[in-house]
Design brief:
The protein is α+β, with helices and mostly antiparallel strands. The chain is built from 1 helix and 9 strands, in the order H-E-E-E-E-E-E-E-E-E. It has one helix at residues 3-24, and strands at residues 36-41, 47-53, 56-63, 67-72, 83-90, 96-98, 102-103, 109-114, 122-125. The strands form 2 sheets. Strands 2, 3, 5, 6 and 7 form a 5-stranded antiparallel beta sheet that branches. Strands 4-1-8-9 form a 4-stranded mixed beta sheet, with no helix packed on it. Strand 5 (83-90) and strand 6 (96-98) form a beta hairpin. The longest helix has 22 residues, at 3-24. The chain is elongated. The relative contact order is 0.20.
């Protein structure tokens, strides 16, 4: 193989390698930090925990009586607004808990406690 063919091959390969490397850092979107929600259920009923965001209801999962479960919010939870609401549906009961608007940023730690008297439940953000 002649030296000119080698140079042509290198000229074809080198720009594509550098092009791939430089485009990898230009996505423009930094990955969102994980937001953890710790749910403590002090109620006699098992609850189904939800996050309400932008008109959507996202299921976190079930938390049985007198247990604590940890969930990670899906990245789409913050589309549009950092204001979230937390909904606990008590299974086998007509009572539910719906929080006020809570400001939550990506990377925050959310502590959510469902009390025996649901009206005294609360959400804290750290």
């Amino acid at each position: 193989m002649s030296a000119s063919w080698i140079r042509i091959g290198l000229l074809a390969i080198v720009p594509s390698v550098f092009g791939c490397a430089s485009s990898a850092g230009r996505s423009g979107e930094a990955p969102q930090a994980e937001t953890v929600v710790e749910v403590t259920n002090r109620n006699w009923s098992t609850i189904h925990a939800y996050v309400l965001s932008g008109g959507r209801r996202l299921s976190l999962g079930l938390v049985t009586t007198f247990r604590t479960e940890t969930f990670t919010l899906p990245p789409g939870s913050f589309s549009g607004s950092p204001r979230l609401r937390f909904l606990a549906v008590l299974i086998g009961s007509s009572r539910n808990y719906l929080s006020e608007d809570v400001l939550v940023e990506p990377g925050d730690f959310v502590e959510w406690v469902i009390e025996h008297d649901v009206a005294h439940s609360h959400v804290s953000v750290f």
